Amino acid sequence: MTKSPVFFAPVTPQAPLEELCEALARLLDKSRLLDRLPSSGRIAVKMHFGEEGNAGFVRPDLVRLAADRLAARGAEPFLCDTNTLYKGRRTRCEEHLVLAREHGFTLERAGAEPVVPDDSKPENVIEVRPGGRWIQTAKLARVFAQAQGLLGIAHFKGHLVTGFGGALKNLGMGCASREGKLAQHSTASPIVDPKACTACGACVEACPAGAIRLEGEAALLDRGRCSGCASCLAACPFGALDVDWASGGRTLQEKMAEYAKAALDLQKGRCAFLNFCVKITAECDCLANDEARIAPDVGILGSEDPVAADQACLDLALKAAGSDVFQAAHPGRDGSRQLAHAESLGLGWRGYDLLRV
Ligand code: SF4
Ligand code: SF4
């Protein structure tokens, strides 16, 4: 079996921030992982800035350790995420950036500025053909193509649809434009909640395909005409349009792996990944609450291979928990599908050599 090296800095089960900072510094020093990235030009540090009220996202003090090392090598790191499909403070660029700064992602605290591209503008979106089973043309934020390298920083945790999420999810879903995110959800078209709809007509105005009309007291969506562009999701001021989050777990994982391949195709050989396998929760950092841990903190992992990094996190988290806590939290969701499909696409290997530092 082919194996990739995965560096691992273990921590104690409820590791405080100070201990995490020491572990990350050790990992970066011993692995020299950041030396694999270009030493000049802009490096995209792909982040999740955390939804308002969420406490699982990777702290700015930790991000700073990586950003400072990139800058010391001569590169210009910037912290980057894309807007979400769901309604929250990360739906639109302006508010997303305000929230990122509130969470400490500033030059002063995190060592680099946050960037959230406006993917409603076509010039900010790039199309890539990953050559997979489901996705003919992936739509990603162009900013990831314009950078000279990519450092993925992911919080490894559970997820409602994909079972768990780490480096692959941070790449596949996280680098996609809003339209690309919607394409990864199997039903592609949004759904209308007639109880929340006020028939204000904002979605009708926003829809470029003429796929929505007002009928009676609510908006009505014509799936046959809908192109899945997701413009209406951002336009609705009442949260009455949403994605069918519970559907299509297996297919979505495969589509997500194909989007991850598209993102990697933009930065071949110029990527590194840090997975924070700590504060492991049942749900992702898009939820607006401070969720309880479902497994003890494991540590920080680093690799050039996102598949191996996620597989190692999964194995270590399940071993630390003593049972399959992700299956228990989301019965019927087998998150390992994303790893198998990513391996079949050539993104990396599920086999790994764990190198403790
Ligand atoms: S996703 Fe796009 S095409 Fe479909 S209804 Fe919404 S705005 Fe119209
Ligand atoms: S924008 Fe929202 S509230 Fe307004 S008509 Fe469309 S679905 Fe209903």
Any overview of this molecule?
- The protein is built from 13 helices and 16 strands.
- Helices cover 33% and strands 20% of the residues.
- With 357 residues, the protein is α/β, with parallel strands linked by helices.
- A hairpin with a 3-residue loop joins strand 8 and strand 9.
- It has two domains: 293 residues, Rossmann fold; 52 residues, Alpha-Beta Plaits.
- Helix 1 runs parallel beside helix 2.
- It has an eight-stranded mixed sheet, sandwiched between helices.
- The structure holds iron/sulfur cluster (2 copies).
- One iron/sulfur cluster binds next to helix 8.
Give keywords:
2 domains; 16 strands; 20% strand; Alpha-Beta Plaits; alpha/beta
Summarize it.
The protein is an alpha/beta fold and 357 residues long. The chain has 13 helices and 16 strands.
